[in-house]
Amino acid sequence: MKLLAIETAGEACSAALLIDGEITERCRVEPRGHSKLILPMVEELLADAGLPVSALDAVAFGRGPGSFTGVRIATGVIQGIAFAADLPVAPVSTLAALAQRGYREGGEERLLPAFDARMQEVYWGAYEIGDAGLVEAVALDQVADPATLAVPLGDSWCGLGRGWGSYGQQLETLLGSRLKRVMPELLCSAHDVALLARPVPPPMILFRQRWHYRSTFATRWLRNRARDECYLVSVKKT
Predict the structure, then answer these.
(1) pLDDT for 208
(2) How would CATH label the architecture of 95-183?
(3) How many CB atoms neighbour CB 116 within 10 A?
(4) What is the CA radius of gyration of the chain?
(5) Residue 50: how many CB atoms within 10 A of its CB?
(6) Using alpha carbons only, what angle is made at residue 153 by residues 148 and 157, rounded to the nearest 5 degrees?
(7) What does the CA dihedral 25, 28, 34, 35 come to, rounded to 10 degrees?
(8) What pLDDT does 199 receive?
(9) Share of the chain above pLDDT 70, in %
(10) Residue range 207-211: mean pLDDT, rounded
(11) Between the CA of residue 64 and those of 20, 58, 74, 150, 189, what are the distances in Å?
(12) Which secondary structure element, helix H or strand E, spans residue 40, and what is its range?
């Protein structure tokens, strides 16, 4: 499997190339530089691997939540690559990708990723690690006031991401003794987008249900009242 993944929805701009289970990544934290950084990263990864775009099996991107500009950059870049090489596309939740990184780097198995959504709200998700070592959602991703978030049952939850840095006191009060650890410095990464984008095993019908085989998308946003912070929640053929 040869898969290219990119993530530009947050502070870090990153691209990752997965080849037969091995992942190589380029990443820089430069919030206003994503549009200049992402294509050179992609080109460098492919050049180092000696691969043309046409040799890829698929592409993936972080669909948000995150900044409107960042999500649009990733969508546009992936559309261009997929259209040019006729590749399938996998959109991956950045909350899920952050949770996957929390497991990959911290070993935590109950994960609560959160991003600052501005306007006194957070983007919030709840994930646990499945049998395959990949995150599985235990509730729908949401955007809400930190004081009114739906908190999953159980103990030993780990908080991840900048939302915990901005609203840590409120979120810690909400979780109480069920909170085990907080990693507010952790950022979403294309490495984990690639991990989550790997296709499910045969039969192929499952593969086709999970992936999108056209490179033109219609988008629907979780938050419509403010386009400065948005979440691409659906992608479909047009």
Answers:
(1) 33
(2) 2-Layer Sandwich (3.30)
(3) 18
(4) 17
(5) 7
(6) 90
(7) -70
(8) 57
(9) 83
(10) 38
(11) 26, 19, 9, 20, 12
(12) helix 34-49
User: What is the fold, at CATH topology level, of the domain defined by 2-93+188-237?
Assistant: Nucleotidyltransferase; domain 5 (3.30.420)
Residue ranges, CATH 3.30.420.40, the chain: 2-93+188-237, 95-183
Q: What would the mean pLDDT of 90-106 be, rounded to a whole number?
A: 96
- Global pTM value: 0.87
Sign of the torsion angle spanned by Cα atoms 57, 200, 213, 16? negative
Which contiguous run of DSSP H or E holds residue 115? strand 110-118
Q: Using CA atoms, how far apart are residues 106 and 92, in angstroms rounded to an integer?
A: 21
Q: Is-contact 76 61, C-beta < 8 A? A: no
The structure tokens listed for 20 are: 């037969």
Q: Is the peptide bond before 113 cis (omega within 30 degrees of 0)?
A: no
| pLDDT number for residue 68 | 87
What phi and psi values does residue 103 have, to the nearest 5 degrees?
A: -75, -45
Torsion of CA 100, 6, 32, 70, to 10 degrees: -80
